[in-house]
Amino acid sequence: MQSSYHASFWIAALVGLASGSVGPFILLRKMALVGDALSHVALPGIALALLYGADPFYGVIVFLTVAALLIFWLEGKSRLPTDAIVGLLFTASLAVGILIIPNADVIESLFGAFPVLSLPFLLVILFMAAALSLLCFVLAKPLLFRIVSPDLAKVHDWVGTTT
């Protein structure tokens, strides 16, 4: 049981570090709603995993990945503001999740405890959080440049590739 607490501590610490690394870029892009919305997008993944007897973690990963790609794609294809796209996806996902989640498992899936993770699973989470933090640190200047002045960043990228 003690090692479970240690694993939970390291997961929380490194995921917090990764979130702190990504947070400023999300705020600058005016996408602060994304964190709340993506937590609700995970609900249909939890519901389908519980319905089919699978590990909810896998359902969450699939739904969050699809939602992130869908937001990115819709952002490029429409003139809607990003927060409107995120809000629409958030509401639709929450509704679908509530409709298909098994009633007996609602409280446990929404307010459950940290799962006991195997060592490989723990290492994957820790590696991903550390890699994301490092990537944000290494790419901070180009990301900031693209957020603050997208047109100038396009010109800079174009000029940089021709010389």
Mean pLDDT across all amino acids: 76
Task: Describe the main β-sheet briefly.
Answer: none
Number of strands: 0
Low-confidence stretches: none
Shape: flat
Beta-strand percent range? under 5%
- Whole-Å distance between the termini? 59 Å
Q: Helix coverage percent of residues?
A: over 70%
Helix count from the secondary structure assignment = 8
In terms of structural class, how would the helical and strand content be classed?
A: mainly alpha
Model description:
This protein has 163 residues and is an all-alpha fold. The chain is built from 8 helices and no strands. The protein has helices at 2-28, 33-51, 56-77, 82-100, 106-111, 119-138, 140-148, 150-162. α1 runs parallel beside α6, α2 (33-51) crosses α3 and α2 (33-51) runs parallel beside α4 (82-100). The longest helix is centred in the first third of the chain and has 27 residues, at 2-28. It is flat.
Short description:
The protein has 163 residues and is mainly alpha-helical.
Question: Can you lay out the helices and strands and say which pair or pack?
Answer:
Elements: H1 2-28, H2 33-51, H3 56-77, H4 82-100, H5 106-111, H6 119-138, H7 140-148, H8 150-162
Task: Record keyword descriptors for this entry.
163 residues; mainly alpha; 8 helices; 83% helix; flat
